Amino acid sequence: MVLHEFIHESRWEDFPSEVHRQARRCLLDTAGIGIGGRRTKLSAVIHDFAAAGFGGAGASLWLDGRPVSPPGAALANAATIDSLDMHDSCRPVKGHAGVALLPAALATLFLAGPQGISGRELVTSLVVGYEVAIRAGKALHATACDYHTSGAWNALGCAAIVARRLGLSESQTRHALGIAEYHGPRSQMMRCIDHPTMLKDGSGWGAMAGVSAGLLAGRGFTGAPALTVEEAQVAPFWEDLGSHWSILEQYFKPYAVCYWAQPAIAGALQLQREHSLQAEDIHSIRVFTFHEASRLAATRPADTEQAQYSLPFPLAAALIYHRLGYDELSDRALQDPVVLELAEKVDLIEDETFNARFPADRLSRVVIETSQGVTFDSGETRAWWDLSDPPEDDALRAKFRELAGALLAPARMNALEEALWNCARLPHASAILDLLVPPPDGGEVQR
């Protein structure tokens, strides 16, 4: 299918049932993480920045209510999702699409008119965004010499959503994609792995760049052709548009840490469950893993960002608390002496077998030795909720309630869950914003 036709002419009825189901799963999961992320310092900083630097109208900050421009809302809300590293991911591009796409789609609800759009149109535009973003990401990784953050390519998915919302012409849509690619943050991901900060995966800037690109193209601004779309060598990535569904390649994360750490966490928890291991009984933990994961080496992270790009600390926290959300990775939690003592016992070992299978597979092996000299070996392990064993719908809904319940009253949380899960039935997608935008009902939001 021609890209312009796919962006502008796709309809909900065109998608197979498995795409319908996956779209609602991605929508609910991403929104829940956006709510959970509001508890982070990163979110507080970026919300205040967007209110001061991107003032205007047309969109709002989630769990805040302050009006801002659509690019400002896309920036702050995407960065908030990125602040809690728990959102859906795509293995072939080693990154994230939904984190930018949902903020872009909700920030531009009213571009088509004061009545906004239907819930079905909202989800349809998200599916379009996933298909464009993931293909652009695959093309970028196949042609660029460095490993770029997700904002470098999810910006094109955001631009496609805005182009659809505004009804841009074929020429304007082409310019929107070109502007988004040119201005998207081609930042080096491994720099943030080695030096974790609030830069995260670049998706806040990707969302802002993509929304801005669509708005600019609508006003007549021109851009160079998007090489990840139009260069001859990337044509194979676009040939199956409309027949192969990239959104089905999304996997979900049970823990708020880098996915590269999660196979080892799964292996450690497996051993603990099978052998009734207690933290005080553990003498050492050896983690055999691929190179990229071995660089998640911070044993004593100084802040939430470092904790999410660590392997020893969250592995230790998971063995003690059996969960990894904001509470286990907040600045206060990083001072837990029991977790720190166990994290010091974790040794990361690069394994050439796992290197050879990356990025198609992200694998680890965990060996735990007890104080009595008994050794337990997990064997080859994958992350929980891997594509080969995805979570059931009920598990994703439980994850949403755990995240949202910290800030929303039960009635509001339940109403939002139902609106998101049944979005395709909503006559007006603005019903989601009515529940998502007002300030929280309680809980802890950083200020």
What's the SSE blueprint?
Blueprint: H1 3-9, H2 17-37, H3 41-53, E1 59-60, E2 67-68, H4 70-83, E3 89-90, H5 98-107, H6 119-143, H7 151-166, H8 170-183, H9 189-194, H10 203-218, H11 227-230, E4 250-251, H12 262-275, E5 282-289, H13 291-294, H14 304-308, H15 312-321, H16 326-329, H17 337-343, E6 346-350, H18 352-357, E7 364-370, E8 375-381, H19 393-404, H20 410-421, H21 430-436
Parallel strand pairs: 5-6
Antiparallel strand pairs: 1-2, 3-4, 5-7, 7-8
Helix pairs in contact: 2-4, 2-19, 3-4, 4-5, 4-10, 5-6, 5-7, 5-10, 6-7, 7-8, 7-10, 8-10, 12-15, 15-17, 20-21
Structural commentary:
The protein has 447 residues and is α+β, with helices and mostly antiparallel strands. 51% of the residues lie in helices and 8% in strands. The protein has 21 helices and eight strands. It has helices at residues 3-9, 17-37, 41-53, 70-83, 98-107, 119-143, 151-166, 170-183, 189-194, 203-218, 227-230, 262-275, 291-294, 304-308, 312-321, 326-329, 337-343, 352-357, 393-404, 410-421, 430-436; strands spanning 59-60, 67-68, 89-90, 250-251, 282-289, 346-350, 364-370, 375-381. Helix 6 (119-143) packs antiparallel against helix 7. The chain is globular, with a radius of gyration of 21 Å. It starts with a helix and ends in an 11-residue tail after the last helix.
Low-pLDDT windows of residues: none
* Assembly classification: single chain
Question: Got a strand count?
Answer: 8
Number of helices: 21
Instruction: Report Rg.
Output: 21 Å
Proportion of helical residues: 40-55%
